[in-house]
Amino acid sequence: MVKNRKPIIAGNWKMYKTASEALTFVRELQSAVSGNEDVEVVVCPPFNALVPVVEALRGIGIAVGAQNVHWEEQGAFTGEISPGMLKDAGCRYVIIGHSERRQFFGETDANVNRKVKAVLQHDLTPVMCVGELLSEREDGITEKVVRDQIEAGLEGLTPGQVAGMVIAYEPVWAIGTGKTASDADAQQVIGFIRGLVSKLFGEETAAQVRIQYGGSVKPQNTASLMAQPDIDGALVGGASLDVESFTGIIKAAAGN
Ligand code: PEP
């Protein structure tokens, strides 16, 4: 089946890589994926490396994203960064509500919603993460958990805003564990999310919004995940830290 949404492969580097390591990485990545037009590629370095990476990738066709943001424009919020600052640094995407933010830093659905609205105001694209814990999957409440996260995270947005964003379905038990959701399980939840977006914002919005899968994506499991009708790319943690494996994922998503 032909999808008319461009797949998006984003690397979430978490708290890894100095600025000089990041520069070495993107120079190698750039030559490894040059000529690729079929897949949108994004790297999300830690804050220290954002500006040098943006500069190194200028005009190259690989976008840069941040891993977190505050919802306020500025103020006495020690350790935080604002949407305007990320825009000024040259970011195009911002990961919001990653499960590590939810688990270790108390991120709530209400905060996720504030952040999504704030970055949209600055013409940045949110990559909003949702996903269930292992215990929630075992209790059979995956759809309920994901529904609550989607409804709260997208609350108050317009259909046009939702259509332009990226949603990442990342089952928490699959992140950094080496356990990938099966193609069928990933498709089932992502299809459910698309159906929910259709109910909340209309069919046209649901047909446009890109929904990634994330959780132990590697070159070997990418093609079959991407072949699922509702999966439009991947948010990649561990395997995005190595040029060879990240390139393998990009090529597999492009069908090469
Ligand atoms: C992530 O951090 O978003 C992620 C999916 O990590 P990993 O690919 O390592 O499971």
List keywords for this structure.
256 residues; alpha/beta; 15% strand; globular; binds phosphoenolpyruvate
Would you count the extended β strands for me?
8
- In terms of structural class, how would the helical and strand content be classed? alpha/beta
Radius of gyration: 17 Å
* Small-molecule binders: phosphoenolpyruvate
Domain module tally: 1
Q: Could you state the order of secondary-structure elements as H and E?
A: EHEHEHEHHEHHHEHHEHEH
CATH topology: TIM Barrel
CATH superfamily: Aldolase class I
The biggest beta sheet, please? 8 strands, parallel, barrel
Form type: globular
Spatial gap, N to C terminus: 17 Å
CATH architecture assignment:
Alpha-Beta Barrel
**pLDDT < 50 runs, ≥5 residues:** none
Q: Report the total helices.
A: 12
Could you walk me through the main structural features you see in this protein, from its secondary elements to its overall organization?
By secondary structure, the chain is of the alpha/beta class. It has one domain (8-253): Aldolase class I (TIM Barrel, Alpha-Beta Barrel). It is 45% helix and 15% strand. The protein is built from 12 helices and 8 strands. It has helices at 19-32, 50-57, 83-89, 99-105, 109-121, 134-138, 142-153, 159-163, 183-201, 203-208, 219-226, 243-253; strands at 8-12, 40-44, 62-66, 93-96, 125-130, 166-169, 210-214, 233-236. It has an 8-stranded parallel β-barrel, surrounded by 6 helices. Strand 3, helix 3 and strand 4 (93-96) form a beta-alpha-beta unit. Helix 1 runs parallel beside helix 12. The chain is globular. The two termini are 17 Å apart. The model has no long low-confidence stretch (mean pLDDT 96). The structure holds phosphoenolpyruvate.
